[in-house]
Amino acid sequence: MMDIFSRRPPPAGARIPYGPDPLNFGDLRLPRDPASEVGGRLLPVVVLVHGGFWRAQYSLEHIGHAAAALAAEGVAVWSLEYRRIGNPGGGWPGTFLDVGAGVDHLRELAPFYNLDLARVVAVGHSAGGHLAAWAAARHTIPQGDPLYTDRPLPLRAVVPLASVVDLRRAWELVLSNNVVEEFMGGAPDALPHRYKTASPIEMLPLGIPQTLVHGAADENVPLEISERYVEAAQEQGDEARLIALPRAGHFEVIDPRSTEWPQALGAIMGLV
Fold it and tell me: H-type helices in the chain, by residue range?
């Protein structure tokens, strides 16, 4: 499924800045005929966050296939770009602040594109799934924390796909040449205060539905990370479930050509 990096995705309808940095932009895709597809009602929104282990060499282009497929289902898709490791200001805290600002920018876009801010679902893949879940947890961050934002946009649900939702466990597993330590600026034991407001599993409960989709054959992000997260979320009283795909690897969950894509799509649309 790695060919999603070589296949050019369908173009977005608009590329819109949400902040001052050149990487502060999102691709907005709307249904071909929003009025007819949703009967003139406001459009529900999927905020889509791409992965790539938070590294600069992976952009939002490859997730454009999934974005286009979701827009074809009758929803608006706001696919975010953000500063990453290797970009000036990327990593903690800049990456987080970018994603938060991108999500909140929907308030500015809503009146121009007929968006329903009461039906915003965050979806992310791999490291993007971590950021999507973090965005859904921002309301738990105390004032004074470097990642705190006043009045973060409330999300209806979150769907992390093959995601790194437990930074401490990912660090223990030394995923992608210990990328977590590089991303966070240090190890969990050295910077526990950072991980407490940056790792979704440490920010539970979120108070919204969470559906995680993960391949059992994923060699990039082990299934156990999602399993541990869902167990912890349920223990905290959250509505959380895991869809484990027995033969799927890392990229099938964002490739509309895969046999597993309908399950990922169903999880997303079921919450939108």
Answer: 34-37, 64-71, 94-104, 106-113, 127-137, 167-172, 175-184, 192-196, 223-235, 261-271
Q: Which residues contact 235 (CB under 8 A, 6 or more apart)?
A: none
> Whole-model pTM?
0.95
Distance (Å, whole) CA 252 – CA 263: 10
Instruction: Give the N- to C-terminal CA distance of the chain in Å, as an integer.
Output: 26
Q: Tell me whether residue 46 is exposed, middle or buried, using C-beta atoms within 10 angstroms of its C-beta: 0 to 12, 13 to 18, 19 or more.
A: buried
Collapsing DSSP states into helix, strand and coil, what is residue 203? coil
- d(CA 54, CA 52) in angstroms, rounded, equals 5
92 by DSSP, 3-state: which? coil
Q: Consecutive 10-residue runs of the chain (272 residues): their mean pLDDT?
A: 78 96 98 56 96 96 97 97 98 98 98 97 98 98 97 98 98 97 98 98 98 97 98 98 97 96 97 93
Give the number of other CB atoms < 10 A from CB of residue 36: 10
